[in-house]
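Field guide to reading this record: the first block holds the primary sequence, the second block holds the structure written as discrete tokens, and the final block holds curator observations. Each block starts with its own label. This record concerns NADPH--cytochrome P450 reductase, catalogued under organism Rhopalosiphum padi.

BLOCK 1 — SEQUENCE
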Amino acid sequence: MENSEGVKIESTVVTEEPLISALDIALFVVIMTVAYFWYFKRDKQSSSSEKKPYTIQPSSLSSIEQTSNSSFIKKLKSTGRSLVVFYGSQTGTAEEFAGRIAKEGARYKMKGMVADPEECDMADLVEMKEIQKSLAIFCIATYGEGDPTDNAMDFYEWLQNGDADLEGLNYAVFGLGNKTYEHYNEIAIYIDQRLEELGATRVHEIGLGDDDANIEDDFVSWKEKLWESVCSHYGIEETGEESNIRQYKLVDCSEVLPERIFSGEISRLKSYENQRFPFDVKNPYLSKIAVNRELHKSGDRSCMHIEFDIDGSKMRYDTGDHVAVYPKNSSELVDKIGELLNADLDAVFSLLNTDEESSKKHPFPCPCTYRTALTYYLDITSNPRTHIMKELIEYASDPKDQEKLKLMASSTPEGKKEFHEWILRDNRNIVHILEDLPSVKPDLDHLCELLPRLQCRYYSISSSPKVYPKSIHITAVLVNYTTSTNRVNKGVATNLLAQLIPTNDELPQPTIPIYIRRSQFRLPPKSQTPIIMIGPGTGLALFRGFIQERDYARKEGREVGEMVLYFGCRKKDEDFIYENELQEYVANGTLTKLHLAFSRDQPEKKYVTHLLEQNADELWNIIGEKSGHLYVCGDARSMAKDVHSIIVKVVMEKGQMTNSQALNYVKKMEQQKRYSADVWS
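BLOCK 2 — STRUCTURE
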């Protein structure tokens, strides 16, 4: 027998046998046969290539599901629905409102569904007219400096750039905003007007919710009138049936293997054990706490300087960006809920959407334990909204507790007053409600369905990547306050951060999930452009990064323009944060001027706005004569508004303009990014 082809060929050459042997012919036939089958098999596979990758590779299933789920019209038609409620949400409130509207649609014989515009082909709006008595409602939040939320960005751009014929589309819009900000509900107002321009029919006037006042009251009042308009427009009547149908059903997961159970991950199972770049809102980076030190020198308040270690993460940030921090609820509050409801917090469960067509299968990562859900996924410290009061009624065994919940859930003047005083003014959270209404014992899985998601907290980054490329710094005030019921409410994120104190190098360092959120708040492109920074309190945090970056440029030998900082706090010897750093920047020439206001170091209170008025010539010299940039960071409710008024006044007086001209000048500064604000209420 022959051992190999090589040996046979070699012997053929040596013995000068015929050029084409029987074996050669046999090999040729074999090769041609293989080639034939390979060619036609490949052709057959390619013709069915749309199916094969999705059936063989599980990783592709999400993409095929996304494609099939993008047509909300098909879902409406296949399930006999006529109402779709879209939401543009950054913190979850708009999504919550959308769910409440969709649920109430059943009372008006309008079966509804909630839809995320990011997951839908919004061009299908042109087909809404094909569904009898159809209605599209938009719950849209305005975010940042008049921007759409992340999940509504594509829809917003589609409206801006497209010219679809939306005749036959019936719609209504509710906006979520905050009056302390300049661009109050700007996105919702634009969408409402743009839909009408494209031919759609407005069924009910736009509603504008103000989160600085009582957005729940705004929403409930608008929603009541919305249904009146809907009944009038479609010639229908309310059935009077209250819909308390659960959106999610409980699934016992006691037999699920431990490695398949979520333990606090935001999206991907075991994502904290197996970190993968890039890091974002659904995939945060588990950062070590490198530094955590107190900035206040004395007094009963606390302000922390914290540094997150990002070495090796591949994350990059720019000066002016924000960092998102994922908090967790205190074990004390979580245990209290388990105690009040006599529940096993370590039981493993899942909540599965009863709407099989919904792209949102679970309200939070499932399966998990109740302890995990209450610790990482659910907001148990904010004031519950009225719909939660309504859902709790059936669980109250005491008639007095029932009546109180019914009153607060109602839209009567008395009900609104009671809700405002007992929930909002007294600052009760769900734990306090269960304590003060002891007969209320909701099923824990239902409570988990009702509570909103725990949101990440955003902080201005107080460092420059030029100086600190491997760490992110933040400046955070510890939030603790006593309510009118003598309870101490604690800020979820800052109280967690206060506990994360780095130890010596031999022990594991404390960690917390973070990701970077990009900002439009930027230094001028040219380092020689002069700037004025106004940042009292922790408003200084962001400017610390600005100063570091300019100081770095100066040390590199680059020309650096004037830097003027206005900072204020209560007392110089108590809460003058980063004092030594600032004085050093003044001494080395990076900071041209440092204007300080200590409000309580003298009989009459003195604020940065007073100093700004006193330095009108300097202000106009930089923003008017030298075309410099002006930045404001801090409280939106009063400080930022007062600064804006002063700027307009200075422009009028020093620029010799009328009030109208001064307002236009300041507006142009904003459009040119020469006047920027990063404020909060």
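BLOCK 3 — OBSERVATIONS
The longest helix spans residues 22-47.
The longest strand covers residues 285-294.
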